[in-house]
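Bump. Still looking for Hydrophobic protein structure tokens.
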Amino acid sequence: MVPLLLVLLLILILAGAGFAVKILWWFAIAVLILWLIGFVARPKTGSGRWYRW
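Sorry for the wait, here they are.
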């Protein structure tokens, strides 16, 4: 019974980690798209940078 519970726990942990990694990938893609839009839509006058660092 204990090995069955350990395997079930391992499956749950791996499924949770896979879900978290998938969410992080979507978040990283969204940030990349926003950065690219900001890079393309930057003002032509002034320093030409749309960010402050």
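The mean pLDDT is 78.

Edit: fixed formatting.
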